[in-house]
Amino acid sequence: MKKALYPWWIPLISASILFILIRISNDAPNEGHYLNHSTLYISIELIGIILFSYIFFFLNLKFANNCIDRKIPATVEYMAVLFFPVLLTGLVMWLSHLAEKRSLEISEIFAPGIIVMLMNVWIYSWQKTAILERHYTEICIRNEKIRNENLSTNLKLLQAQYRPHFLFNILNTIYFSIDEKDETARGAVEHLSNLLRRQLYTAEEKVPLSNELSVLESYIELYRLRFGNTISVFTNFEHVHQSVCIYPYLLMPLVENAFKYVSGKKIINIDMRLSAENNLIFCVKNSISGSLIEKASSGGVGLKNLKQQLLIYYGEDGFRLETSKTDNEFTAVLELFDV
User: Fold this and answer.
1) pLDDT tens digits for 133-174?
2) Which helix (H) or strand (E) holds 323?
3) What pTM does this model have?
4) Residue 252 and residue 302: Cα distance in Å, rounded?
């Protein structure tokens, strides 16, 4: 729960100051005495100013947040800040005059209106500054949290990279020890080496899409070797400009999920394209049947972790991740906006 920007008694003090200033501006020039008015007149003005002071503080916060979120121009923003307080002040004065059966003159509103406008502009500016400072603090805390998470992830990756050169040397030895005629075994070692190399040496920053496609192709080929003719995998990677870059290993979980839960006819369709709005759309479909239908719908830990990564990298408004299912097919769609 967020802490309030100000204590409850601040609007009360503001109302008291505003009330005194209005009374001085109206009574002093006319040599009038405020207590000469009726009790109803005094009550309406006192209660009205206190009530509207709390309303101003509440509405100002809502309005300031809305202006920040929607980036409303300052001229429009401050016209509203100036106009509504004067309108409410006029309403309070009209009610108090009505209690004494007196008509309200425009000249009587002029001085209080100026005071209320200046007071509300000052209060609004103070509140908006406090909101911006809170937003800045929240962003700093979030960025620090992301930085710490990245450091922790990098540390785990470093710990996982146990003598990678030794591993690649062993793979190369196995590769060259396999008979040249055994293309299947050589291909498997080559694809595995490519996957491991990408995992070990890819940093936590955007990479060309071609790199990710290379990893996906190696991953798919390994599964093709594993399943043989029992599975059908169809890929359609539409030509995407080389300048397109994404964060690494965001596409892999969707493909991995498809291979994990594919059943029935065992068909997987993988499609990638770039929309007219420059959004990268990656769609993976796999056939499902029987008991695996519900399991595929949950997506498991892989898709949950993917969503967390997407939130860190792109924010809530930077991507779309949706899943759907029918009686015989599961579909996962990832859309990265404005890549």
Assistant:
1) 888 888 888 888 888 887 777 666 555 554 555 555 556 666
2) strand 319-325
3) 0.48
4) 10
